[in-house]
Amino acid sequence: MVELKTDKSIDAMYEAGQIVARALTAAHKAADVGVSLLELNEVAHDVLREAGATSPFLGYRPSFAPTPFPAVLCVSVNDAIVHGIPTRYRLRDGDLVSIDFGAELGGWVGDSALSFAVGTPREADLRLIETAERALAAGIEAAVVGNRIGDIAHAIGTVCRAAGYGIPDGFGGHGIGRRMHEDPSVPNEGRPGRGMRLRHGMALAIEPMVVAGGTDTFHAAPDGWTLKTDDGSRAAHAEHTVAITDAGPRILTAR
């Protein structure tokens, strides 16, 4: 069931979303050659503590997961698509990094992600990141009252496929609000004019993921969480929490 949020609730989600934005900005700023993924996690965790917020990631255990997630920040490097667990791995020059973060404040949740290169970027990585961001922008632009979920999916998929990139099978965005994952599912590829109609008060986490090699298949790493590309090519991820309003889409995690 999809819960329609009141305007007051959307404002509360914006407060949670701004904590997410600050944490991602801080982690991105801290990411440099030689910095460990665990250190990035601590940077993000400090933002949570200072804000008096909690993490919807820490301890989260969906049905596919062998263990609860042990961190507040997902850090996925190079051929990791999403759900990377922070480790002692130290960033190297040219690494492609995706960070995903959530915050809960006052019973409302925000969720967002971004990708970036560390040190000297590869041109191919910059194109991949730029495509993920363009796909996100296209999805948000389609997130208007009267459109359907399929319109968001089609907008995202069109950008990704036109660039020649893969889209991981079965993964996409989701509803969000009192919990991190709510109805409806928001695919990253689909047919326009299909699916649930968008209404004022819906809140969605829209999150394109792109695979440089053009394949859609992936596998879980031995940790049971990190999803990696089957062809070993690099991946990028972009995400915002967006409220559907009569005035147009409102990005609650804008940085």
From TrEMBL:
Cellular compartments per GO CC: cytosol
GO biological process, one term: proteolysis
Reactions this protein catalyses: Release of N-terminal amino acids, preferentially methionine, from peptides and arylamides
Cofactor needs: Co(2+); Zn(2+); Mn(2+); Fe(2+)
Top-level EC class: hydrolase
CDD domains, alphabetized: MetAP1
Binding positions for substrate per the UniProt entry: 83, 181
Cofactor remark: Binds 2 divalent metal cations per subunit. Has a high-affinity and a low affinity metal-binding site. The true nature of the physiological cofactor is under debate. The enzyme is active with cobalt, zinc, manganese or divalent iron ions. Most likely, methionine aminopeptidases function as mononuclear Fe(2+)-metalloproteases under physiological conditions, and the catalytically relevant metal-binding site has been assigned to the histidine-containing high-affinity site.
Keywords: Aminopeptidase, Hydrolase, Metal-binding, Protease
Enzyme nomenclature, EC number: 3.4.11.18
Annotated binding of a divalent metal cation 2, by residue: 111, 174, 207, 239
Location of the Peptidase M24 domain: 12-246
Positions that bind a divalent metal cation 1: 100, 111, 239
GO molecular function: initiator methionyl aminopeptidase activity; metal ion binding; metalloaminopeptidase activity
Membrane-crossing segments per the record: none
Cited Gene3D superfamilies: Creatinase/methionine aminopeptidase superfamily
UniProt subunit comment: Monomer.
Family named by the database record: Belongs to the peptidase M24A family. Methionine aminopeptidase type 1 subfamily.
Annotated function: Removes the N-terminal methionine from nascent proteins. The N-terminal methionine is often cleaved when the second residue in the primary sequence is small and uncharged (Met-Ala-, Cys, Gly, Pro, Ser, Thr, or Val). Requires deformylation of the N(alpha)-formylated initiator methionine before it can be hydrolyzed.
Protein name: Methionine aminopeptidase
